[in-house]
Structure formats: C-alpha cells, structure tokens
TrEMBL record:
Gene3D superfamilies (alphabetical): CRAL-TRIO lipid binding domain, GOLD domain
Transmembrane spans: none
Lineage: Eukaryota, Metazoa, Ecdysozoa, Arthropoda, Hexapoda
Segments forming domain GOLD: 270-384
PANTHER family: SEC14 RELATED PROTEIN, SEC14-LIKE PROTEIN 2
Domain CRAL-TRIO, residue spans: 76-253
GO cellular component terms given for this protein: cytoplasm
Species assigned in the record: Aphis gossypii
Record protein name field: SEC14-like protein 2
Alphabetized CDD domains for the sequence: SEC14
C-alpha cells in the first residue's frame, strides 16, 4: 500500500487517512491500493475512519468470496466478452479515462439467458478493476484528479421494457448495489446523453438505489446535440472520444462508432442462450421432485413479517410446467398473487421474487395437470427473505408492476 505526496486535502482529512491506513495494515493490501484508493472509502463515509474501515473490510471479504480478479484460471464466457457494451476511448483534460457505454447495446435479458449471473458479476467487477487500474496509472502522471473515471452513456434507443423481466430487474439492482458497496467514489462525472422521456422513470429508480454522492455526478441531456456536444467538448478533447458522440475518433475504415475500442454490445443471438439440457440431480441448493402426469405440487410458506420477499429459482428436465403463487390471509381469503401460467423452465432456469405485503400463508403451485402423457422432473429452491431497505423494495415493485 503506497503513500501519495500529491494529495490536496485538509489536515483533518490527512489525519483520517493516516488512521485508516494504520487500521487496515493487517490486510496487507497490494501496492496499487494507494492513498487515492483509501480516500475513496473515506469520502464515502464522510471521512469517518471507522466507517470507512468497516466498508473496506466488507468489500475485501466480498472480493474473496466472489473470486474477483483471483488468479485461478477463470475465463469469462465469450458471450459476455462479445456482447457487454463499453470501452475506454481516451482521457479527459485532467487525465481521467473516458469510458463510453452505448446503453442500447446492453441486452441484459439475453446475457442472463446465456451466462450464469455469478459470471456476469465477476466479469463486470473485472471490467471496473481494469478501468480503475488505467485511472491509477494515469494519476501517477497527472495527479489525483485522474484517479477517477469519466463516463459517457449514450441512451439512444434506450428501452426500459427488458428491465421489467424480474430476473433482469433483480440483477440490475444487485449490480448497482455491488457498485455502491465495492466501488465508492470512482466516478468523476457521468454524461448521460440522448435521454428519452422514459429514462426519467429509470432515473428516479436510480435515485432510490445509488447514494447522493453518486447521483450528483450524473449530468443528463435530452436528444439535443446542441446541448450535450459543447458539454463534452468542455471537459474532453475531441481526439479522445468517438465521432458518433461529437469527438474525432474513428476506426481505420472511418466508422464513427470507434469499434476498435468501444464494444457496442447488441442483441444476444438466441442460439447462444444456455439451455437446461443437463439431467437434473440432487444438490444442496435445490430440491428435486417428480410431479406425476395430471398432478400438481403445492408448497406452502408462512410469512409473519410484512414486506418480506418470496424468492424462487427452478428448472425442469425436458419439458415446461405451469407456475403460480396464491396467498391466504388470516380470514382464510385466498388471493392470486401470480396467475398460474406455463413457464419454459426446461430451456432457461426461472428466477424471480415478489414482495409479500401482508402476513399469511403463501402457496407456490407447480401445475402439471394439463399433461396427460408425461410426468415432470423439477428442481426448485424457494425461500422467504426478511425485508430489506425500503428503497430496494420500492424499486423492485416499480419494475415488476410495469410488467404486470
């Protein structure tokens, strides 16, 4: 863990930095985790050394559990490499790397159907780490102001609909929370350009998940180049970002999207989707059952704490099945929470969550009554989770309600 002599901070902040440095000495952090790195955690906790230490230790534990940048031979699925949009185009006028994100190319549904969620988390963390290493190297030359990342998000053709699929909504929220907990204060500015009206809804959701410090870094522009082009030019030289965003960078063939550096992502072809073609077996994570032809499986769960979550994960072998959720209150009145309908969980593992607003008995139904020919082999994991922060509950609800 190296020290910096070029920091422009007050005496109190320098003292807090010294305390934090001493308190985490036992972690034996790598040299790349210098004073600029420690300052980010202090800023996220208003320069409270104890709070910053707790946050940093929790993050380091998370990195270990998720094998983030662990030298274990792991390679990300090629579909993530090919279809996750983003890239560094250059540097801003203070030396910070400029990350360009063509958001319309983020096919979160297709990626979730093609790669395990854990691989997506690990891959995105790996990406963030690589961007931060570029920023760190630049800061050694240009000073501490270059240690953060400048981002340009192109919201052309932004479509909120795919994020209303429950697994996609849940993954998006988890990724945002992962970012907040493990990459504090890495963002210098985020220029969100070509924002359509529907992005207003999405931005209100972001405000409920991200901290005020992060949200203050967002600068949002409608699809009016006369406004956002001068704004970008004021902080980034034209030869440091792509021509399709108003800069001067182009590919050798003249393509203004600068594909040699900026992965555009795009719609993931269905032939790349992972299918549940493996035989189902018993595991510690999932219960394996056989549902006879013409039969139903009822699983009852008692919820005692309002606003709890009921989460599910299931798949079948070879054929689809119907799935739904019912709720029975203290007066024995039954309500349909999720209508029973056919789910192609033999092709893609089904993952989802609902909020149990009221105490009562919640019944998960797996319905094979429509099949008079074959039974179904089902592997499932159903669990009740206690309420979390209200901002997360509200965010999930808004996304889910749009779908329904």
């Amino acid at each position: 863990m190296s020290r910096r002599t070029d920091l422009d901070i007050s005496d109190d902040q320098r003292f807090a930095l010294m305390k934090l440095r001493r308190s985490v000495a036992d972690l034996k952090l790598d040299e790349k985790y210098d004073d600029c790195f420690l300052l980010r955690w202090l800023e996220a906790r208003n320069f409270d050394p104890k709070g910053a230490e707790e946050m940093l230790r929790t993050s380091m534990k998370w990195r270990e559990e998720w094998s983030i940048n662990k030298d274990d031979g792991w390679q990300p699925p090629q579909v993530l490499v090919d279809y996750m949009p983003s890239g560094i185009s250059g540097f801003d006028k203070e030396g910070s790397p400029v990350v360009v994100l063509p958001f319309a190319g983020f096919d979160v549904c297709g990626l979730l159907k093609s790669a395990p969620p854990k691989d997506m988390v690990r891959f995105l963390a790996q990406k963030l780490d690589s961007y931060l290493e570029v920023a760190r190297q630049s800061s050694l030359k240009h000073g501490p102001k270059a240690s953060q990342v400048c981002c340009i998000v192109d919201l052309t053709d932004f479509n909120l609909r795919q994020f209303t699929w429950r697994p996609a909504a849940e993954m998006t929220i988890n990724l945002l929370q992962m970012y907040e907990a493990n990459y504090p204060e890495i963002l210098k500015a985020c220029h969100a350009i070509n924002a359509p009206k529907v992005f207003t809804f999405a931005f209100n959701i972001l405000k409920n998940i991200l901290t005020g410090n992060t949200m203050n870094k967002f600068i949002i522009y409608k699809a009016d180049p006369s406004k956002w082009k001068p704004a970008l030019a004021s902080t980034i030289d034209s030869d440091q970002y792509p021509a399709f965003l108003g800069g001067s960078l182009r590919d050798p063939d003249g393509d203004p999207r600068y594909l040699t550096k900026i992965n555009q992502g795009g719609k993931v072809p269905k032939e790349l989707y992972s299918k549940n073609d493996k035989k189902l077996t018993n595991s510690d994570d999932m219960t394996l059952v056989n549902i006879k032809k013409g039969d139903k499986l009822y699983l009852k769960y008692t919820v005692t704490v309002p606003q709890s979550f009921l989460r599910w994960q299931f798949k079948t072998e070879g054929h689809d099945i119907k799935f739904g959720i019912l709720a029975t209150d203290s007066e024995n009145i039954q309500t349909v929470i999720m209508p029973i309908k056919k789910v192609a969980c033999h092709e893609f593992e089904e993952i989802g969550v609902i909020k149990c607003k009221h105490p009562g008995e919640y019944t998960v139904v797996f319905d094979n009554s429509y099949s008079f020919i074959r039974g179904k082999k089902l592997a499932y994991s159903i669990r009740i989770a206690l309420p979390v922060k209200e901002k997360t509950i509200g965010t999930i609800d808004k996304m889910v309600n749009m779908e329904e």
